[in-house]
Specification:
67 residues; alpha+beta
């Protein structure tokens, strides 16, 4: 089983200034009764935060998964 919190490159919310998004795999985004999947086939989950750089994103991700 993987880590609960995961990192994806880019801003899932669509904001151009963020480079990384951290999401919670325990909280899927639902569309009706189905787990939402985008046009690229990626499942979506609740966004926890978005970051400007990889260093900050990695630090937050490690802290969340250690809790």
């Amino acid at each position: 089983m993987g880590d609960r919190y995961q990192l994806v490159e880019g801003s899932i919310s669509g904001h151009c200034c963020f480079e990384f998004t951290i999401f919670d795999t325990n909280e899927p985004e639902m569309y009706g009764d189905e787990h939402y999947k985008d046009s690229k086939g990626r499942f979506h989950y609740k966004n926890i935060c978005e970051c400007f750089d990889l260093e900050s994103a990695t630090m937050i991700l490690k802290t969340l998964n250690a809790a």
